[in-house]
Design goal:
Transmembrane segments: 12-35, 41-58, 94-116, 122-140, 147-167, 187-208, 220-241, 275-299, 327-346, 352-371, 383-403, 409-428
GO molecular function, one term: transmembrane transporter activity
CATH class of the largest domain: Mainly Alpha
Structural class: alpha/beta
CATH architecture of the largest domain: Up-down Bundle
Protein name: Amino acid transporter
Number of domains: 3
Radius of gyration: 35 Å
Organism: Natrarchaeobaculum sulfurireducens
Strand content: 5-15%
Pfam families: AA_permease_2
């Protein structure tokens, strides 16, 4: 990507931005609170948290070298997981960093009071003034911002190093006992609390487009800053608890309501005297200023990057003509921070972003998997995360564990930010964009490959196929004939045994032990008992015969009564409940497929469901429902993919009928009008693979429409046979209806609805994923 942004940030400035984004409240506020939770094991909590953040740092480093663009984690999540999750990551990060920047400015209150008590009443004006200064500085020059950040971080590290070196000889071993005890009570809660101390590590990627030699600089800065900060945190907290009697209280230096601040200052006073405390207070002030500056710099790049992708108004993408910085994005971000300082209880509001930071780390790790497994030809990072995918899986698992320790308020904040971002995406961004993430493309390709493999396996199988043609007294003569025709057509692709059973209802019987009675007297007139009288579509040399043993038992067939491909036999069964008997016959006869007539009225019995719905829910095998509209051969057969990939049985059945009729297959699939080009390309490749498996001529038709039923109806209208799916069964079908059923009702073509036994009851998650990937 070409850019007018200036690459002014070297390794030192980039590392300083990362350290400055991390060091702040994480060391000057949280240690005392975490100590109250886990005691001396707070040292181990900081170490564990740093290790859990490492996978996200490695993942972000890899993606930053492949896509050195401003926007950081937003860019990676958007490219890897799609615009919806990208919008959540972008808006969430922008809110979160704005909150943290405002908190850093307003959070200097107790420190200023400690140095100059008379400034307490001017805290808000001072914070606003600093926000203005940082905003102007970020507009004028990113290079100046990086230089200032380097200077601030340098002084801050020197001050903290002075505390560590000066205090280490005074550490009391008794007070640090258990510092690295991983079994200590409360260590998980403490880890969750201090986890946010490392949240700034991946923020340097937000300015990747302004970094010199990003392929080398960014991984070094990101991983190096994490290692330095982790070591700094561990050493400072270890020394602090070793020299202070109780780090959870600030002793006499605790200002009212400010116990969080005085913990490190109290420790410095205990070992270094008043001068040491003043140095630590200075370091704290610098750290908070650094956090505010880094937060403003990083936060402003999210609307800038999102504008380039069309997710927010394009004005945020514009660079200042002279300074070559995203001036509008910087000014708006700075203005939002000032508004928060002046109006909001910022200490409480800033907590809302804590859990969202963990979610971002999880999404960053997930995005790497999306890129690695997805279809991204130009994904070529200079730095590669080691131990893939275990590094990412450990990082995601650790993030989820930490989330459980975050408490209600942070989780509620993360949910609130997510809802706002989703709302923005639905109402603003979605109508304006046509693309998807690498993970979705890769997932669709994987689903297509698996579906293609299943289709090939079904077509290559030489196993015998047992078909039960279930005829009732209500089945029309035309439907009986067409059901038999379609059953025998299966024999053109594989050896098939067709059992035509006429189920006759009889009155209720008094004795419960009475069971259905099987008859095999004569073959009815509508069946071709003699091959010479059979219609042209009936298999050559085949006729309908009666079973040798009418009551069941071992199957016995004479050689004269069958062909190599198809054997057909007939019986009649009298019972009180023919639908239950159909299921029983299919179960104990080991049928692979039941062919029955589609009863349209049954599909509209929404509340309790009809006979057809019962059969679909209870059949032990695949089911074909035939809706006869005068089928008399075919020139074209439309095969519709209802829910994601094609079910192999649809294709096998349609191919068999086409073999008999000489028809051409038309593979029909509908996608939204604004579907990304990658979706169409994936489906085209999938259809090409299927066409190579079919034994008859076939073509592919991909329809762009927001009304799936209406769009498919236009193309199905010219076909002689429609093969579609049942889609839903059970309560969801009765309440929501079946899209495939609506399609069948809207055309005058003979239709066959296919339901496979394995795919009869897809779960909610599966239905959502399949619809999301393909539709």
């Amino acid at each position: 990507m070409t850019s007018d942004l200036q690459r002014d940030l070297g390794l030192s400035a980039t590392t300083a931005i990362a350290i400055g984004a991390m060091v702040g409240s994480g060391i000057f506020i949280l240690p005392g609170i975490a100590y109250a939770t886990a005691g001396p094991a707070v040292v181990a909590a900081y170490l564990i948290a740093g290790l859990l953040v490492l996978p996200a740092a490695l993942s972000a480093s890899e993606m930053a070298t492949a896509m050195p663009e401003d926007g950081g984690s937003y860019v990676y999540v958007e490219r890897g997981m799609g615009p919806l999750l990208g919008t959540i990551a972008g808006i969430g990060n922008w809110f979160m960093l704005s909150f943290k920047g405002a908190l850093a400015l307003i959070g200097g209150v107790p420190y200023l009071v400690y140095v100059a008590p008379g400034l307490a009443e001017y805290v808000v004006p001072i914070a606003l003034a600093l926000a203005i200064v940082f905003t102007v500085l970020n507009v004028v020059s990113t290079k100046s911002t990086g230089a200032l950040q380097f200077a601030i971080v340098g002084v801050m590290i020197l001050a903290m190093a002075y505390f560590v070196v000066g205090g280490f000889p005074s550490v009391e071993p008794a007070q640090t006992a258990g510092s690295f005890d991983l079994t200590s009570e409360g260590i998980l809660a403490a880890t969750g609390l201090v986890f946010v101390s490392y949240a700034g590590v991946i923020k340097v990627a937000a300015v990747a487009e302004e970094v010199k030699d990003p392929g080398t600089t960014i991984p070094r800065a990101m991983i190096g800053s994490l290692l330095v900060t982790t070591a700094l945190y561990v050493l400072i907290v270890y020394v602090a608890i070793g020299v202070a009697p109780d780090l959870s209280t600030g002793g006499e230096f605790v200002p009212e309501g400010g116990e969080e601040v005085a913990s490190i200052a109290y420790a410095a006073e205990a070992v270094l005297g008043e001068l040491g405390a003043l140095i630590i207070v200075l370091a704290a002030l610098l750290a908070l200023a650094s956090t505010a500056n880094a937060g403003l710099l990083s936060a402003s790049r999210f609307p800038f990057a999102m504008a380039r992708d069309g997710l927010v108004p394009g004005q945020f993408e514009q660079l200042h003509a002279r300074f070559k910085t995203p001036a509008l994005a910087v000014v708006v971000t700075g203005g939002v921070m000032m508004l928060m300082i002046a109006t909001l209880p910022i200490e409480q509001v800033a907590k809302f972003g804590s859990a969202f930071q963990i979610l971002v780390f999880i999404l960053v790790n997930l995005a790497v998997i999306g890129f690695r497994e997805g279809v991204v030809d130009d994904y070529d990072p200079e730095f590669v995360s080691p131990l893939y995918p275990w590094t990412q899986l450990v990082g995601m698992a650790g993030g989820l564990v930490v989330l459980t320790q975050m408490g209600t308020v942070p989780l509620a904040g993360a949910v609130a930010i997510t809802i706002v971002a989703v709302g923005w995406y639905v109402f603003y961004a979605r109508p304006r964009i046509e693309r998807e993430g690498a993970a979705r493309v890769g997932a669709r390709e994987n689903v297509s490959q698996r579906a293609t493999g299943r289709t090939r396996e079904l077509f290559d199988s030489d196993a015998k196929y047992d078909v039960l043609v279930a005829v009732t007294e209500e089945t029309s003569a035309d439907a009986r004939r067409d059901m038999l025709r379609m059953a025998t057509d299966m024999g053109r692709l594989r050896t098939t045994s067709v059992s035509v059973v006429e189920f006759v209802d009889v009155p209720h019987r008094v004795f419960a032990e009475d069971h259905p009675e099987v008859y095999a007297g004569t073959v009815p007139d509508w069946l071709p008992a003699d091959s010479e009288d059979a219609p042209s579509w009936f298999p050559d040399g085949c006729s309908v015969s009666l079973p040798v043993r009418s009551s069941g038992g071992v199957e016995q067939r004479s050689v004269e009564s069958q062909t190599d491909d198809v054997h057909v036999e007939y019986r009649r069964i009298d019972s009180e409940d023919h639908k239950q008997t159909i299921v029983d016959v299919a179960t104990y006869g080991y049928s692979d497929l039941v062919i029955a007539e589609r009863r349209q009225a049954d599909f509209h019995e929404r509340l309790f469901g009809g006979e057809t719905d019962w059969l679909l829910r209870n059949a032990p095998c695949d089911v074909l429902l035939v809706d006869d509209n005068g089928f008399d051969g075919a020139n074209e057969i439309a095969v519709v993919a209802n829910r994601g990939a094609y079910d192999p049985l649809k294709l096998l059945f349609a191919d068999a009928v086409a073999e008999e009729t000489g028809a051409q297959l038309n593979l029909l699939q509908a996608i939204p009008e604004n579907a990304p080009e990658s979706q169409r390309e994936s489906i085209e490749r999938y259809h090409e693979e299927l066409i190579s498996i079919l034994t008859v001529p076939a073509r592919s038709t991909i329809i762009e429409t927001d009304d799936e039923t209406a769009g498919l109806t236009r193309f199905v209208g010219d076909a002689d046979l429609l093969v579609t799916g049942v889609d839903r069964t059970g309560l969801s079908a009765r309440l929501l209806g079946r899209p495939g059923n609506r399609l069948v009702d809207s055309v005058d073509t003979t239709a066959v609805m296919v339901q496979t036994h394995d795919g009869r009851r897809p779960g909610l998650v599966e239905r959502f994923v399949m619809n999301h990937l393909f539709n």
